[in-house]
Amino acid sequence: MAPKTTKKRSTPSDPNGIFSGMLVFLVDKGVQRRRLQIWKQKLVQMGAIVADEDEGLSGNVTHVFAADSDSLGHKFPPKLLHRFKGSILLNQWLEDSLRLGDKLNEQSYKIHLTSCQTSPNPPQPSDSDTHLHPYKKPKTSPNNSQTSTPQMDKSSNDSGTGQQTSISAHDASLPYHPPDLNKNITQIFGKLINIYRALGDDRRSFSYYKAIPVIERLPFKIESVDQVKDLPAIGKSMQDHIHEIVTTGKLSKLEHFESDEKVRTISLFGEVWGVGPATALKLYERGHRSLDDLKNDVTLTNSQRLGLKYFEDIRTRIPRDEVQEMERLLQRAAVDILPGVSVVCGGSFRRGKATCGDMDIVITHPDGKSHIGFLSKYVNHLKDMNFLREDLVFSIHSEQGTDSGVDTYFGLCTYPGRELRHRIDLKVYPKDIYPFGLIHWTGNDVVNRRLRILAESKGFRLDDTGLFPATHGSGGKRVSASASLKFNSEKEVFDFLGFPWLEPCERNI
After folding, report:
1. Is there a catalytic annotation at residue 440?
2. List 63, 241, 371, 440, catalytic entry
């Protein structure tokens, strides 16, 4: 008797889903197998039909998705691509549409075929073709020069302690190199971020902060505002700004700010470390108009004076390779004092950026107790090495059990052999709240803000020290519990809140 065959369970499909009417072909080159399976499942659940591999570009296929033009060229001959009448889009369209729960405008995600893909005899792909993907640059394997697909569910990121045996900057993040073909826009928006931040208008500052990564990832030069109308974070006001910049090459709002002495001066003072919007305004009202004026102000704190003294140093971006070398130095120095300690550089470095404004170092120990008293010894050791140079903030709470037991050091450091000062933050967390510290200090601000809002909507308060159930006290005022929920990894926090998991390199949104 022949053995019974097991019938595969089909994925339920919503005929009215957001992808209804789409017949999709997914190019598998450059995509992790597990991620491909998830996409197929989601597409079918939301109304699409996924073409089989052997179907190719049949007459019914409406959409082709690929990692980049190189992957596309490896799958299909140029003549076939040239004849195809459907949409050829970057995989990122799928990612963004799934995350936002709606079909996005396709214009911004179209793969523009290169000359070699529209000519009868295309040349062999060159090394430069690996840079065609506008969202992620392939990771280079440490064992060879070939590029490999980023692993979307690394065990390193599921580690509750982030020990260096399982996680490092090289393994945990990929270089983030968006095309940034629209620097004429992003540079102006960057200036507006600083101006509004200095003026204390965090809402407006944040709106530009959200828009910049959306624009810098675009694989085309913006020539018309119609190209960005349906993009996330690009509302009517932002569209008007883009239209003005594209048509005139400038933005009148920025010119107005830069010509206003008060705004210009307050913005400048606000860039000094330790000087907030209120202090910047007071300094202006005292008659100060330049950084030189501030040098004689007796009201400045010692930290603010250091921020003023090393103003230009602190503003200098740090190349990624130098941050990586300093992270290794910090790891070796930490192990000298406490074997098994975990030291991870977060911030823009962990997110894969090419340069960093400062270094955010997140520290813990897997035994849950040896971190107590570590920071003071660590700081002294780094000073003996002439790495840490000036102190800005130093607070110890682990020994008293206050402030969730988190120890903090903010200061200035130098790359070995140089005198140029860089900002560095050291944060030591107990093991049981370490995932929250790692999420917070990895960023970016957009991700952190969305996680906080989501937590509040579910009745919790989220910060770098935990996720706290919120209750209503007397008078209806919302009060947070004193004890945080416990999680072993960043991913567990994301999953609990129902937020799609993002690798560190995917948090530049």
Report:
1. no
2. 241
